[in-house]
Amino acid sequence: xxxxxxxxxxxxxxxxxxxxxxxxxxxxxxxxxxxxxxxxxxxxxxxxxxxxxxxxxxxxxxxxxxxxxxxxxxxxxxxxxxxxxxxxxxxxxxxxxxxxxxxxxxxxxxxxxxxxxxxxxxxxxxxxxxxxxxxxxxxxxxxxxxxxxxxxxxxxxxxxxxxxxxxxxxxxxxxxxxxxxxxxxxxxxxxxxxxxxxxxxxxxxxxxxxxxxxxxxxxxxxxxxxxxxxxxxxxxxxxxxxxxxxxxxxxxxxxxxxxxxxxxxxxxxxxxxxxxxxxxxxxxxxxxxxxxxxxxxxxxxxxxxxxxxxxxxxxxxxxxxxxxxxxxxxxxxxxxxxxxxxxxxxxxxxxxxxxxxxxxxxxxxxxxxxxxxxxxxxxxxxxxxxxxxxxxxxxxxxxxxxxxxxxxxxxxxxxxxxxxxxxxxxxxxxxxxxxxxxxxxxxxxxxxxxxxxxxxxxxxxxxxxxxxxxxxxxxxxxxxxxxxxxxxxxxxxxxxxxxxxxxx
Length: 504
Hints:
The protein has 504 residues and is mainly alpha-helical. The protein has 21 helices and no strands.
């Protein structure tokens, strides 16, 4: 076996000297991530508008009910191993190869288990159509596991631009497949095809760009991969619990009510988290990579945390306020009258997303400091609490009451709890969090309430596009004033503009 200490392929993973100019590289990576996030958001809005008119809520609910098991299986299959590539200070080619094969083997095992248990899961929902959907979608775990390794290799060196543009290309082609399938009468099977094609293409694109191939499984040591399991195991467990929590409303609605209720809740949540995820998902690669390089510098860590979180909130919160206040005309414009019952759900779920920038920043701070055990413990407590709250709300007043209870619990209880956990285990303090996110959340909540109950009733009766245009102008004006009155935000925006012009 080759001595991994002298293997020239180790140079692919060498990050020595990256601390120099790290802030500048992180800033540019953030600009790219946010820019592509906007493009992906536009793509997803277009997807929602088209698919909602081709696939009705009841049929969409079949696909939505299969997703929680697949999403949890995806987290189980990687055990946080791709993130270990980013977080480790040093890592070798053979170590990464070991992670690759372990990850792929776990994905194959979990995919087989999902296929085998698709029948009982379908029976639990009381709908036989869920079983074949779940069986086919389980194959996507193999593609996602492989692409995750390549994405992490690129992110380790802050090659964010490549990962984001290649992901966007895969999503565009996947959407084209879904639309073609729906137009040809495939109904929810068109969504299943999209779920398979997108990660497959992403794997091919990333592998070609990365120009790295793992050594064969016979040449690696399993012990290399097992070294990362303590870090990755807790991270995977935390991810599983977080994803299960995210799908909990869809599962409860499908089990207690019907597939239409599951479809309404899933689609409303999907729209609500669209903008936040289009920002936080790509920025997580920047957050974790950058903060991991600063884990031994507490002051630098806090400064970078505030900078990154405030930047993500500046992108998330104006859109989240717009979606919350304009939920009714937005649903009408995007999806039509068949989905009108999703509007009140969208309002409350959009309020929940106000915490997204801050909570994602805290999560990445915990991961960067290797405190994945603390993150897992928090996510378990959060899941249990929200399960009790949501089931009680559903039984008392249906899906809307469940949604209201969920949102209030997330804002008032779980977010402060997460701040406390991060304060005990990372350099991030309450003061740091408030500087980066707390004040902005309070402003957004007040603005959303004022616009929803003050401005929007005055626009009732106007076409949806007119209502949204006026609302957009109002939100834009408020946030323009917010930037103008804050020296810190002005400086942040100027840095972003300099990065954009510098790239131009």
